[in-house]
Amino acid sequence: MKLEEVLELSRKTGQMRKVCGNCRYHNTYKYPDQVFCFARFSHRENPVVSVWFDHCNEWESKLQECFCLEDSLKKRGKRTK
Amino acid sequence: MKREEFLSTPVTHMKIKQDMTVDQLVQQFKNSGSFGAGRLATACDVYENMVRDDKCTLFLALAGAMVPAGLRTTISDLIRKRLIDALVSTGANMVHDLIEALGGQHYQGHWHVDDYLLYKYHIYRIYDVFVPEEDFIKADETLVKMFDEISEKTEGKRVSTNELMWEVGKRLKDTDSIVRSAYEAKVPIFLPAMRDSEFAYIHTVHQTRSNPRKALLVDAFKEVPELLDIAGRSERLGMVVLGGGVPRNSVQHAALMTGKGLDYAVVITTDRPEPGGLSGSTIEETISWGKVKHKANKVMVIGDALIAFPMMVASVMERLGPNFRRKGNP
Q1: Which of B138, B284, B321, B323 is most buried, most CB within 10 Å of its CB?
Q2: Is B139 exposed, middle or buried (0-12, 13-18, 19+ CB in 10 A)?
Q3: Neighbours of B290 (CB within 10 A)
């Protein structure tokens, strides 16, 4: 499954496209569902967020190469079955 | 030198037996006296001499990914047994010690792997060792908070890399940790290239979270007089080097600056002298600088430190026996 399709699916499931799992600065915290955001950590906010979380205005709409979103989505699919 | 002197010691062929101990195997290496086997057998003798010399301060210089690859407990045990007196390391090796101390792991992987696939899975590769990104990140998170706490305590006072490592060690619970063991045994850890590691990132994040005036001040030069003080108070100096690089030269430089020169040296490396880098420089070359004494008990083992070093330690520990105690120097 291509990332574009994943994101399309994510739109269908009501998630926004601008999500932390597709930020080029994200680091995985609990693969694939949670990421660690150093921007939030630097501001002393809770740095551990869902890959689907959207909080940042500086987010760039360039698709990321990692499997975080794709694997998270697969995991979600398994959970609902 | 006369002709017969060149032919005084025959090669004795190695006899390998079932159930032989590590030191018995090393003795067979000594009988051969040739190539890497001969050098490793000499290294065992030199290290034994260092350890048995009551007046010798023993430095371990650590470079290359020795901790991720499995030497963590070996080094920690050497510290607790005081079979080394000071550790001079790359920052990265201590970061990898802390990754495990804070719950992370290193995994057996393979060198022949799709690195782009690893990248997509957030897995880092160190030759054939894999580290999950989250283990780095979790260590970063805890260490940034430790740095926050330490900077509150030090209140703008400059700390050396050793002072910082002991502060970190104080806050760890894992008794297998090198940093924790060093804190408990009061064995100094110097990190002369500390910023060339994850510590740089940790410090930067700590700094952005803190009031800039309250950020932790780690003074790279403060460890120099600390190292010189140790070398200066020591009657004799010895070093065991794994890899080389900045840690090796920091020890050698302390020996030079105190005008003493090293009395014992074991260097285990795969590096070559021809490109002029320090890691591959021969001990003979080091003598020209006055860093190692001309008559030092010394050997360079050309080989994988992950094989040679544990063999050397096992062999020497066997020779020392279970009741051997070393008080530590200086």
Answers
A1: B138
A2: buried
A3: 16
- Contacting residues of A for B141, CB less than 8 Å apart: 36, 41, 47
How far is the C-alpha of B112 from the C-alpha of B1, rounded, in Å? 51
Segments forming the whole domain that contains residue B7: 3-93+160-196+215-318
B260: domain CATH number is 3.40.910.10
Query: What distance in Å separates the CA atoms of residue B179 and residue B166, rounded to the nearest whole number?
Result: 7
Cross-chain CB nearest to A30 (options B116, B134, B136): B134
pLDDT (tens digit per residue) in A36-55: 999 899 989 999 999 988 87
Whole-angstrom CA distances from B84 to B37, B69, B138 are 24, 20, 30
Measured between alpha carbons, how far is B208 from B212 in angstroms, rounded to an integer? 7
Nearest CA among B330, B324, B309, B325 for reference residue B47: B309
In a domain, B45, yes or no: yes
Furthest C-alpha separation in chain A: 39
User: Distance from A13 to chain B by nearest Cα, in Å?
Assistant: 24
Q: B176 lies in a domain?
A: yes
This complex has an ipTM of 0.84
Whose structure tokens read 């994988």? Answer: B304
How many Å apart are CA B162 and CA B186, to the nearest integer?
A: 10
The Cα–Cα gap between B33 and B51 comes to 22
Residue range B183-238, pLDDT digits in tens: 999 999 999 999 999 999 999 999 999 877 789 999 999 999 999 999 999 999 99
Q: At what angle do helices B198-209 and B91-101 cross, to 10 degrees?
A: 70
Per the CB < 8 Å rule, is A31 touching B119?
no
Query: Across the interface, which of B120, B137, B209 has its CB nearest the CB of A36?
Result: B137
Place of tokens 């999950």: B132
pLDDT confidence tier of residue B16, bands split at 50, 70 and 90: very high
Is residue B91 within 8 Å of B179, Cβ to Cβ?
no
* Interatomic CA distance for residues B194 and B197, integer angstroms: 6
Q: Reduce the DSSP state of residue B257 to 3 states and report it.
A: helix
In a domain, B324, yes or no: no
Chain B partners within 8 Å of A66 (Cβ):
119-122
Number of domains into which chain B is organized = 1
Q: Quick one: CA torsion of B15, B20, B23, B25, rounded to 10 degrees?
A: 30
Find residue B241's DSSP bridge partners. B61, B267
